[in-house]
Amino acid sequence: MKLDDKLLIMVEDSDHIYERCANRVKHEMPTEQGEYFYTMGYPFCQEFSEQQQLLEYAWVQGWPLWADGEFLDWHGQKEFIQLPRLEGEDDDSYRERILNRTQEEEGSGRAKDYERMARNAGAGSAKAIEHLRNDLSIDIFITDWEGHPASQVLCDAVRAAIEKEREALHDVGVLPATIHHVVVAARLILSSDANPEETEAKIVENLNIYIKKNEVLRYQVIANLMFVPGVEDIADYTLNGGTNNIVTPDGAVNVLDWSPLP
Prior knowledge:
The protein is α/β, with parallel strands linked by helices. It has three domains: 47 residues, no CATH class; 110 residues, no CATH class; 82 residues, no CATH class. The protein is 41% helix and 21% strand. The longest helix has 26 residues. The two termini are 35 Å apart. This is Baseplate J-like protein.
């Protein structure tokens, strides 16, 4: 479980607490274990330290952003979320669905509603497009949890689950998404103290987040995302072989092909 670097929680060990208490009383800390103050005070400091750790754990689990296990299940059961964990679903996937659910407003059968229904039914990602076949059609293109085009079995299962919630007269189809390869090629100019593997891993993480959330991929934005700590400059950068923005085709999901140049 990783917490944001900006999140600061005060947790002290027993020695730190004892030192503060002793200095406040005597302006110096008795270090001899046989001294009366140490014998009487140190056990309380141990207890305070343990309570701080318990409070830290309780505070962290109180937020869906950092909660895990049964505590994350509890967040999903809240009245305004009501989103159960899918069978076999890991914490990261479940947490993402919960966070997405809190940011979405339920409508009356628009594309975003059907995308949410598909994810809740087991799709890894979903993209709904209206009016492809007729005025009442909504086609949902889905992937599995690994980001691959969904199997027919998964498509059928998602379609059956959506049937319970779909709006009357809506002609809903669930289809495997196609793969849209996003090829990012660049030569990185690194600082002398940079770790090449860690630097590239951070770049790939940034790019994956961006291309999964956007349909129009902007050349300059992707360039900016490559400037992580350790990168001084980039050269010979191309996006799908050119320098223009690209648009994700209908029914496709973006998949990153990272190609660092020597």
